[in-house]
Amino acid sequence: MAEKIIYLDNNATTRVCNEALESMLPFLREKYGNPSSMHSFGGEIGKYIKTAREQVAGLIGAADPQEVIFTSCGTESSNMAMRGLTEPHKKHIITTKVEHPCVLNVAKHLEKNHGYKVTYLGVNSEGALDPDEFKDSIRPDTALISIMWANNETGVIFPVEQFAAIAKEKNPEVLFFVDAVQAAGKIPIDIKNTQIDMLSISGHKIHAPKGVGAIYVKKGTLITPFMQGGHQERGRRGGTENVAGIVALGMASEQALKYLDDETTRVKQMRDRLEKGILENSFNARINGSRFNRVPNTTNISFEYIEGELILLHMSDLGICASSGSACTSGNLEPSHVLRAMGIPFTAVHGSIRFSLSRYTTDEEIDYVLEKVPAIIEKLNSISPFQTELKELKEIKTSVKKQ
Ligand code: PLP
Predict the structure, then answer these.
(1) Is 321 a catalytic residue?
(2) Is residue 154 domain-shared with residue 269, that is, in the same domain?
(3) 158 and 264 assigned to the same domain
């Protein structure tokens, strides 16, 4: 492994922040009681869970902390929202082609095994949805709409607040679920002022540990618990609480809220500088997804006519960690379903790299990446089997630059 690590893969997972780590340790050492116990040693743990619930509610702007239910991860939260539907006669679901597999695969499962019809909305080349197509897709028997707030691969933001309002106007009974795993802590969320019914977050994307997440379920929303068991989480999610994880998620949420301005200023500036530097120095680089309507930490760049995996390996040798496609699909050479849905040419999809920054990213790290990456790309360009195409592209880019 390289001596120094430049971690630009924060959409895959994040480093646990010191505040979250410190907050959880007592619950792994001395405060190990079970919150369901009758004795006070266990019983007093409940108050720490209560605080964590308030902290998570604070991050997403929930009116009542009781609307927050702790889960084990973003995936479980999606499963809970989608599999908990209670109206058997309503058999239509709307989602998008660019959701995370934890939504897409549940949708496919419901379609295949439970008789649901699913509308998968497409996106344009910028990664945006068409509001008219969305509105037209809503039917009287639509039970659920599941649309992500920010895309994990491109960072593109969907206007979920407006879409929830459109949906409720057309069909007031429809449930609107938002996967906000990549939005929480990156853009402001004020759920109480929206018509969104359910929203998921994941601890390890916001500097809490892996193995903890949450789902917001608006008061009065009826869903069947996905995890049946004890009375924990007021019967809405059985299983003895992951107290240390929950406390850490609470603390990480508080910190994320505190650092939100930093995300939209300093982190964004670093992302923009990284992107600009790469575009200026690699003629075959192009940005995937809207450059304006994105979370501030993410950039998805295609290096046309070369292989993303090779770029990743060369960067990894120098300690630079990024990703080609979503974390859950890397290790699998299937081209990204998100970039394909955007109509990105195959030769660009294969050379796509996602850089995702965090508040721990520094300017020096960006300098280092800008020093190393163009040389890697130049080297890989020289051994690409697409020499004619690269030459043509270079000529086009050079003539555009001159104009
Ligand atoms: N939703 C999105 C948009 C994600 O990016 C991820 C993880 O990459 C998930 C859901 C799943 O979260 P978890 O890893 O906590 O299950």
Answers:
(1) no
(2) no
(3) no
